[in-house]
Design a protein that fits this description.
By secondary structure, the chain is of the alpha+beta class. Helix content is about 45%, strand content about 10%. The protein contains 24 helices and nine strands. The strands form two sheets. It has a five-stranded antiparallel sheet, with helices on one face. A four-stranded mixed sheet has the order 3-1-2-4. Helix 5 packs across helix 6. About 45% of the residues are buried. The N terminus and C terminus are likely disordered. The structure holds zinc ion. The site of zinc ion has 6 residues, from loops.
Length: about 550
């Protein structure tokens, strides 16, 4: 069926009473929801739009994803919403077939509203449990009414509705994908008690949690304390590029990349475990297997893993900026969907960045391995994983010279660890990235490169850019970081993705031209830097 074309871009179909207080036309216009684009995406079940909008179907009263396998409703019977919460607020129930709770998350960069992006990050980390909207608004430095207005404009729902929908979706995911007892799901999804959980699920799904579970048709039962989740993304996703980046930097004993999957040991709230991530290409999803003793931490863990693998990224938006550069355009065309790898733990990532200052990736990885075997807690239970990364309390007083770390760098790591122990630096709940990075740079030995690298991988800032990086300078053929910064203006607000492509190109040209480079130059400094990727940094 060909998409219906309408002369007015933001004109939606006829509204009906189900929308309640929402003025559909104003709503669609304010949120830049382009009805024609939504309509085409819906009719072609375009996975690139999954999670960017939801479809309410009048008659059935459910809301669906753009990839819904359900029979295609007539255009006059559908409404488009920029978030699941907005569809729920308008009285639609989540579809049991296409499972809106499994859709990729809201893109990180919502138009010009940085405040909404930050608020979503904070809600993702801890919900609205600690203080509600007032406290959230205060942390963001805006009034709660203004925050509410921003949410309505960009997401079509209030902060409370967004937090509630996320909680409900996570509960549904646990019902469908795990065999956890309902009492534990009630707690893990933040309902507090079974009674509220049962009532909440029944109200929305018109079924009991047990009835929903029997519909889910779980095939493979998981052993105790093991959980299997499918986390979806908007294609394309360059999984091999992600794995190659992580493999080159995998800390021996803590992380392992083999057989197409990534595995690492983890420690959280005094418990140890591990998780493993691989690709399910057919379903546009990553498969995550978690072994951990406390199901109450699952929400946090899933959010962290989603961030680590950059699952919220919206390739369609990113590619528009990168295409404007002739060099990047070719790479983007050849290898679409490269993501910015995040991290499991901000302190660990920052420590790794300091270890990597002015040496090769290979050298830094070897140092990290020695640090872990000397100071990390032994771990067993998963192939290739022998230790947990040492926490700040251990590294604050560690004699790091014993692993061959230069004195200055050892002092920087100890100072960072002490600042984290004292509570001066916190990697969680960051509201203002710039303020956090300035704090980080107050530590002697942490300069602009390290701060930008941390912003890119620990804070998930899509526009972070370590312009002083030697690998980036070489690949882009410019001589100074200021020249590179000027060129990178065109890549905003996606400079972190441009950096990933440039590093990717650097590692490929190294493989092709390594012999030539070695035979031409005999200077020890150049030989030491065998990989131009993210090395030899001026801090
Ligand atoms: Zn559906």
């Amino acid at each position: 069926m060909p998409p219906r074309v309408n002369a007015t871009w933001d004109r939606g179909p006829k509204t009906s009473g189900i929308l309640g207080w929402v003025d559909y036309h104003r709503f669609a216009r304010d949120m830049n929801l382009d009805w024609q684009v939504c309509s085409r995406a819906r009719l072609s079940r375009d996975a690139r739009f999954d999670g960017k909008f939801f479809i309410g179907v009048i008659g059935s009263g459910v809301y669906c994803r753009p990839i819904s396998p359900a029979p295609t409703a007539k255009e006059k019977n559908v409404r488009y919403f920029p978030s699941a919460a907005a569809a729920a607020e308008s009285g639609f129930r989540p579809c049991l077939r296409c499972r809106p709770e499994s859709s990729p998350g809201t893109p990180a960069w919502l138009g010009t509203s940085n405040t909404v992006s930050r608020a979503l990050r904070l809600i993702g980390e801890s919900g609205l449990e600690d203080g509600g909207v007032e406290v959230l608004a205060e942390r963001l430095g805006v009034g709660s009414r203004h925050l509410r207005r921003l949410f309505l404009r960009h997401l079509g729902a209030t902060p409370i509705a967004v937090a509630q929908t996320r909680r409900l979706h996570f509960a549904k995911k646990l019902i469908d994908e795990t065999s956890l007892p309902m009492s534990q799901i009630a707690l893990a999804s933040g309902f507090g008690c079974v009674r509220r959980f049962n009532a909440g699920i029944r109200k929305v799904y018109h079924r009991t949690p047990t009835q929903i579970r029997s519909l889910a048709r779980q095939t493979d039962a998981q052993p105790g304390n093991q959980y299997l989740f499918r986390l979806q993304f908007r294609p394309p996703y360059h999984w091999n590029g992600m794995l190659a980046f992580l493999a080159a930097r995998a800390t021996p004993g803590v992380e392992a990349v083999e057989g197409g999957s990534y595995r690492r040991s983890i420690s959280l709230n005094g418990r140890d475990g591990y998780f493993e991530v691989s690709l399910d290409e057919r379903r546009d999803a990553l498969v995550v297997r978690i072994q951990f003793g406390d199901p109450l931490s699952l929400f946090f863990m899933i959010e962290r893993i989603r961030a680590m693998f950059d699952l919220n990224a919206d390739w369609a938006a990113i590619v528009q900026s990168l295409r404007t550069d002739s060099v990047l355009a070719r790479r983007v065309e050849a290898d679409p969907g490269l993501r910015v790898p995040g991290c499991w733990n901000g302190f660990e990532l920052a420590t790794r960045a300091i270890l990597g200052q002015q040496i090769t990736v290979k050298g830094a990885t070897a140092l990290a391995g020695r640090m872990v075997s000397s100071f990390g807690k032994p771990f067993s239970g998963a192939t290739g994983l022998t230790h947990l990364f040492p926490p700040p309390e251990v590294l604050a007083d560690a004699k790091l010279s014993s692993i061959g770390l230069p004195g200055k760098r050892a002092a920087t790591i100890r100072a960072l660890a002490r600042a984290v122990c004292d509570g001066q630096i916190r990697f969680e709940g960051i509201v203002e990235s710039d303020a956090f990075l300035n704090q980080l740079r107050n530590i002697s030995g942490i300069g602009k490169w390290t701060a930008q690298y941390v912003a890119m991988r620990a804070l998930g800032e899509p526009d972070a850019f370590p312009s002083g990086d030697l690998g980036l300078l070489r690949t882009s053929g410019v001589v100074s970081s200021s020249e590179l910064e000027r060129r990178a203006e065109a890549w905003r607000p996606w400079r972190a993705y441009a950096a990933m492509y440039l590093w990717n190109m650097a590692s490929e040209s190294r493989v092709r031209g390594s012999r030539l480079v070695c035979s031409k130059t005999h200077k020890p400094t150049v030989e030491r830097i065998t990989s131009p990727q993210n090395v030899s940094v001026v801090v």
